[in-house]
Design goal:
The protein has 436 residues and is α/β, with parallel strands linked by helices. It is 45% helix and 15% strand. The strands form 2 sheets. The protein has a 7-stranded mixed β-sheet with strand order 7-6-8-9-10-11-12, sandwiched between helices. The protein has a 5-stranded parallel β-sheet with strand order 2-1-3-4-5, sandwiched between helices. β1, α2 and β2 form a beta-alpha-beta unit.
């Protein structure tokens, strides 16, 4: 065989092999759904629930991939980034995920102070932002967002739950008419805290509660003694506190040292949902405090949920404990898992099968098709997103929080009454160091 022909055949074979390799890579890429996952893995928000949310999200991804991926065909490839508890880092990482990693879907976000600017940024880029944990109503209110979705509750609902609980129990438990109950609203001054406090105030006034103090502070404040002094002067019966773990720890320590007394303290998720961390610092001091948040899935009665949902919760709980060696599974794990599960199982398969792909337009249309009835998710609520042109476009209209109570080493649900697992202890018993 002439040298030129032999060389030609070798060159052709090499080209064919290269083409085959490129085609295989292209096929593999085509069969993979790449999702940017943004959480605070370091900084103060990490221990406040962000890491637990990220673990919940990864468990959902693992379970779907173990069954072959989205629709049993398309594996999920998460691109994980650390927003470091800083809004500017969150925005920079989102830009990198979109511009360099070329992802069309961003999932996660713990802090509302990150979610508000990220929502505007991603909407402008016409990419999908699927929020799992951040709750501020301001993310959506009157923004008419088209590409941002949140199945999670929003901060206005904390105020509804807070006022409704007190209104329902004031007379029977406190021996007081609602109009005689004095409430103080304290909050970190970011979008999360401001949103919760505004909702608390609006709904408290709606049912006739007396708002005797409303005070914000920086979550990084080194001293909250002035706030504690104001609370003592206000003589509030009930305190609502929206804060993260470091500022909650500082507040409770200084409140105890100064002898602050009250009939009940309501947390608003975030740091108050990290019960194991609070208990490690304060022990029995936090017994019987209440906390408003989406329910940890393991507290619900599986018999009241759709078939298979209870088994899914058991799997999530087992995997979380295996990954962390934790005994308590915080609500943030359920949030990260639940919202990711909805995206991967109720949205992406429809986007591919009905709308032709995993591009933002297909995903947006598929999200608006979601119609999960109450009891259809591990956190009990259903999912139906408000459509474009409505005041909360992109927010789940069926999300609901619960009021939980720290019953010693465990958490119980005390509101709404129809799903409660324990009658509420209200006011704090005389043995509490904070009891009025």
């Amino acid at each position: 065989m002439p040298t030129s022909r032999r060389t030609l055949l070798k060159t052709s074979a090499a080209a064919a092999a290269a083409f085959s390799l490129d085609w295989t890579r292209a096929q593999a890429q085509a069969e993979t759904v790449r999702i940017g996952v943004i959480y605070d893995l370091t900084g103060p928000f990490a221990a406040g629930g962000s890491v637990a949310s990220s673990i919940g999200t990864q468990i959902a991804i693992d379970l779907v991939n173990e069954k072959g991926g989205v629709g049993g065909k398309y594996k999920i490839a998460p691109v994980n980034v650390d927003s470091q508890s800083k809004p500017d880092v969150a925005i920079n990482e989102a830009n990198r995920l979109i511009d360099q990693e070329k992802v069309d879907i961003l999932n996660g976000v713990f802090a509302s102070s990150h979610a508000v600017p990220l929502a505007a940024k991603v909407e402008q880029q016409k990419r999908i932002l699927w929020i799992t944990t951040a709750v501020s109503t301001a993310v959506f209110k009157d923004k008419n967002l088209q590409y941002v979705f949140r199945a999670q509750i929003h901060s206005d609902q904390y105020g509804q739950a807070f006022a409704s609980f007190i209104n329902e129990h004031a007379k029977a438990k406190l021996g007081m008419e609602p109009k005689d109950v004095k409430v103080a609203l304290i909050h970190e001054d970011g979008p999360y805290g401001v949103g919760v406090a505004a909702a608390d105030e609006a709904f408290a006034k709606e049912v006739g509660l007396q708002v005797v103090l409303k005070e914000g502070y920086s979550a990084s404040a080194p001293d909250l003694s002035v706030l504690v002094t104001k609370l003592k002067r206000a003589k509030a019966d009930v305190i609502s506190h929206a804060g993260y773990n470091p500022d909650i720890t500082l507040f409770l320590r200084q409140a105890r040292e100064s002898g602050l007394k009250f009939k009940m303290l309501f947390g608003a998720g975030a740091g108050y949902s990290q019960l194991d961390k609070l208990r490690a610092t304060f022990g029995a001091d936090i017994d019987n405090f209440c906390n408003i948040d989406p329910v940890p899935a393991q507290l619900l009665d599986p018999a009241k949920l759709a078939p298979g949902v209870g088994d899914l919760t058991k799997t999530m709980v087992a995997r979380y404990r295996e990954k962390t060696n934790a005994t308590e599974v915080p609500p943030h794990c359920s949030m990260g898992f639940n919202q990711a599960w909805i995206l991967l199982n109720n949205v992406l398969p429809v986007a591919k099968d009905k709308y032709g792909g995993f591009d933002p337009e297909a995903i947006r249309k598929a999200a608006l098709d979601v119609d999960i009835p109450t009891g259809g998710t591990i956190q009990g609520y259903g999912v139906k997103f408000y459509p474009p042109g409505t005041p909360l476009s992109g927010q789940n209209e069926r999300s609901t929080p619960v009021v939980m109570q720290n019953a010693g080493e465990r958490i119980t649900v005390v509101w709404p009454t129809n799903i409660r697992t324990q009658d509420p202890v209200f006011p704090l018993p005389k043995g509490s160091v904070y009891a009025a």
